[in-house]
Amino acid sequence: MGVSGGADSMALLVVATLCQTRADHTRRFGVISLDHQLQSGTAEVAAAVATIATKLGLEPVITRALDLPETGTGGLEATARVGRLEAFAQGAHTTGAQAVALGHTADDQAEQVLLGLVRGSGPRSLAGIAETTTYGELHHPLHVVRPFLGISRAETEQICHWAGIEPWQDPMNTDPRILRARIRHQVLPGLEQLGPTVRSGLLATAAIAAEDAEYLDAEAHRRYRMLAQRHKATIRFDLQAVRDLPAALGHRVIGRAVTELGGTRPSRERTLAVMELARARAGSSAGPIQLAGGVAARRNRGQNPGEYDTLELFTVPSSRS
Fold first, then answer.
1. Is 138 found in the same domain as 25?
2. Which residues contact 220 (CB under 8 A, 6 or more apart)?
3. DSSP of 32-97
4. What is the CATH number of the domain that holds 91?
5. Less Cβ crowding at N or C end of the chain, within 10 Å?
6. Are residues 22 and 101 in the same domain?
7. Same domain, 167 and 19
């Protein structure tokens, strides 16, 4: 379990301890407590979590200080998230753990949906936080489970109170400079003045978006396997086949090709540019269009002069090589 010392993860620790004491329960639970080193006192919090976990009989208990870069893609919150996942993956790999459990609640889910709306995201982002996620892009594969998505933050606080545990109050959760904190303490309470069903409505939106995204992702995967022709560091598509793709599938197919070539999943703006390139008339620019992570896209000419018949995504040699 990833335990920060806050109410959600400490409640998870308590519930795991109760499960482990049942005679019919065969699973064992360990703890990894991280010190992000982003503010004073966090090393003491991580040590306190380890002490409580050890007293409760959980093992192994790991504490780890994260060495986060001062700057990173996506800002401090995104950098810290990647650092956490890498630490969890390393801890699971070292101990042989099957999964890492995290204490996200229904409140986190509602906040995540609002974050997706603010950022102009599609169904996959509006689906919020999944109950299970496998991260294959880390140094070690990581399987994460989130058993508390069906309960509220108030309930995790009640569990801590029942167990006699005083959870840590992370100052960053109330820092107005952080978007999630503003949504938690300003936006969501303001929306709830509209009526008592705001949170349940956001959770329903996440569930519906998850169903839609699952279907679209599966269909895009099927289309990609049908259409993509790979040769070394190049992936080609029949130009007309790309033109015929519905936009929702086209964005996903192009994104899949970029990641298959080792690039970073492109933004909607970039995949839209590739789709427009595919649909452009003869005589228009054939590219290339630069995408994230050293991948580019261009049209290739067919047999007839002035016509194009393939869309090609390819890796761009590094300027350092």
1. yes
2. 248, 249, 252, 253, 256
3. EEEE--SSTTHHHHHHHHHHHHHHTT---EEEEE----SS-TTHHHHHHHHHHHHHHHHHHHHHT-
4. 3.40.50.620
5. C
6. yes
7. yes
Cα three-residue angle 95-99-101, rounded to 5 degrees: 110
Same-domain pairing of 56 and 189: yes
Provide the residue range defining the domain that includes 239.
228-315
**Dist. CA 231–CA 229, nearest whole Å:** 7
Count of structural domains within the chain: 2
Domain-embedded: residue 302: yes
Are the CB atoms for 179 and 115 separated by under 8 Å?
yes
Exposed, middle or buried, 206 (CB in 10 Å: 0-12/13-18/19+)? buried
Span 107-155, pLDDT tens digits = 999 999 999 999 887 888 899 999 999 998 888 999 999 999 999 999 9
- 238 and 136 in a common domain: no
pLDDT along the chain (321 residues), means of 10: 95 94 80 87 93 93 83 68 92 95 97 92 89 90 96 97 94 90 96 95 95 96 97 94 95 96 91 92 77 90 70 82 47
* Residues 6+ away with beta carbon under 8 Å from 207: 127
Give yes or no for a contact between 17 and 58, defined as CB atoms under 8 angstroms apart. Answer: yes
- 123 and 68 share a domain? yes
Q: Output the DSSP codes for 139-195.
A: SS-EEEE-TTTTS-HHHHHHHHHHHT------GGGG-TTSHHHHIIIIIHHHHGGG-
CA distances from residue 25 to 17, 18, 19, 22, 268 in whole angstroms, order as listed: 11, 10, 7, 5, 46
Alpha carbon of residue 125 to chain centroid: 9
pLDDT of residue 71: 55
Residue 211 lies in a domain: no
Task: Tell me how far the alpha carbon of residue 2 is from its chain's centroid.
Answer: 16
223, part of any domain:
no
Q: What is the pLDDT of residue 321?
A: 47
Note whether 13 and 52 are within 8 A (CB): yes
User: What is the SS3 assignment for 137?
Assistant: coil
Residue 306 lies in a domain: yes
